[in-house]
Amino acid sequence: MSLVTPDFGLLFWMVIIFGVVFFILAKFGFPVITGMVRKRSDHIEESLKKAQQAQEALENLTQEGRKIIEEAKVQQGRILKEATRTRDQIIAEARQKAQEEADKIVEHAKIQIAAERESAMRDICRRVSLISVKVAEKIVRKELDSSEQQLALIDRLVDECAKSDLRN
User: Which DSSP string corresponds to 51-102?
Assistant: First the structure.
């Protein structure tokens, strides 16, 4: 027996054993191996599909996030415009109220000044009339010696006062 060239009997038994082993592997081993490979392949495909779906979901979430950010910016701008408009309105109302108050104060001051001027004029007129009466009294006493002249002057003055009261 040579190591390089086998005998016919050895070759026969090797082919038979190889066939039996191949048959057993083909019947029981290969289906299990191919099933495992197929199962592994299906699992890999499913994982790839899930990864693809996750990628799409991530892209959708990113787009939604961008939309939400844009909407937030728009709303922020709207809120800022409204706040500015409200601020301007409050300032305008405050200015208007301040102007109205200033006008009321000025009007009240004018009325008060007019009343004080009128009071001062009455006071001055009263004092002037008192001084005039005193001066007139002194002049009349000096010039009128007789009581007839005094009575005639009094009558004339009463008539003039009565006429001036009727006019006013």
Answer: HHHHHHHHHHHHHHHHHHHHHHHHHHHHHHHHHHHHHHHHHHHHHHHHHHHH
- State the amino acid at position 32 in one-letter form: V
Structure tokens at 110: 């004018």
Containing domain of residue 141, as a range? 8-158
Mean pLDDT of all residues belonging to the chain: 87
Tell me how far apart the alpha carbons of residues 70 and 86 are, in angstroms, rounded to a whole number.
Answer: 24
pTM as predicted: 0.41
Does a structural domain hold residue 166?
no
Question: Is the residue at 1 inside a domain?
Answer: no
Q: What are the φ and ψ backbone dihedral angles of 2, each rounded to 5 degrees?
A: -115, 150
CA distances from 27 to 22, 56, 59 (A): 8, 43, 48
Q: Which residue has the tokens 């200015």?
A: 95
Identify the pLDDT of residue 142.
Answer: 65
Predicted confidence at residue 85, as pLDDT, reads 95
